[in-house]
Amino acid sequence: MSALLAHKTRNLALKNVDRLPSLSPALNQLLGLLAKRDVDMRQLSRIITTDASLCGHILSAANSALFGRSVPIKSIEQAVARIGLGKLRMIALSKSVSAIFRGMRTPPGWSMTRFQLHSVATGAAADILCGYLPVEDREHAFLGGLMHDVGKVLVATGQPAEFIEIENLVACTGRNQIEFEHQILGTDHAELSGLAVAKWELPFSLARAVANHHSPELPRKLDEVSLSAVLQAADRFINSLGISIRPAQGEQPSPELPIIEGHHYPGSEFAAHFGEGWRVLSAVCL
User: Fold this and answer.
1) 228 and 238 in contact (C-beta within 8 Å)?
2) Are 114 and 245 a contacting pair, CB within 8 Å?
3) SS3 of residue 170 by DSSP
4) In this structure, what are the phi and psi dihedrals at residue 248, rounded to the nearest 5 degrees?
5) Which sign does the torsion angle of CA 257, 261, 266, 269 carry?
6) Is 220 helix (H, G, I), strand (E, B) or coil?
7) What whole-number distance in Å separates Cα of residue 281 and Cα of residue 202?
């Protein structure tokens, strides 16, 4: 490919980011509030109740069999008491972000359900890892996992022919998807994901971590772990469970615990923690 053609192809791919809708005011407020260590529950309730769909999803989850149905839940405050702030945070963010892509036309072979499952699972795994490791920018772990593959949606919806070509090349050769994305698009889904996060005016540290989740950056402090490294490890772990965007072909992969070089954590405890949380999240986040 000539330098001129490569430049033109890259510009076309980058323009996919411009097609993204803006975040709703409610989601913008929600993201800002849930990033804080101490959440004002009255403010959280006010934000959620301005979005009828989101409010309905949360109340439905709180009244589901997963959390018991002895006493009907009728308010967000009651929902937090039953679900817990951590899970409510994940449900609210998952539902809000997935709504952005609702109605987008996708090519054959793309499943928005698989995308959402993979994204939520990666976010949950990253968030749990932060409980065992000294991760910088840890407050963005779940959202980083939720958004790390947004670039794949942009390619699938904006350049469906190129998306199918990349998928076929990966399926035929088994080689790295990033390699073919650069070859065909002049960029990759990680860079596009980072640009999407930046367009939504979310924190720079989150955009940087998402953009680098296939080539993690070094942490700012030697005894810490970069968020991009955690996103990469969580992404690999979730793919190893078979919770992937691409349909499974041949034998199912073997589960592999996340590996963070230079850091140790109780792997079996992490796996049990994830399994318990995923049972709930997979049922209520989609």
Assistant:
1) no
2) yes
3) helix
4) -65, 140
5) negative
6) coil
7) 24
219, with CB counted inside 10 A (0-12, 13-18, 19+), is: middle
pLDDT digits (tens, 9 = 90+) for 132-179: 999 999 999 999 999 999 999 999 999 999 999 999 999 898 788 999
d(CA 12, CA 154): 11
Angstrom distance (rounded) from CA 55 to CA 208: 31
Q: What angle do CA 238, 243, 246 make, to 5 degrees?
A: 115
Instruction: Give residue 176's identity as a one-letter amino acid code.
Output: N
**C-alpha dist (Å) from residue 44 to 2, 60, 82:** 52, 17, 16
pLDDT digits (tens, 9 = 90+) for 208-232: 999 999 999 999 888 899 999 999 9
CA 155, 25, 73, 34 dihedral sign is positive
Question: Closest by alpha carbon to 110, among 153, 143, 162?
Answer: 153
Amino acid of residue 55? C
DSSP 174: -
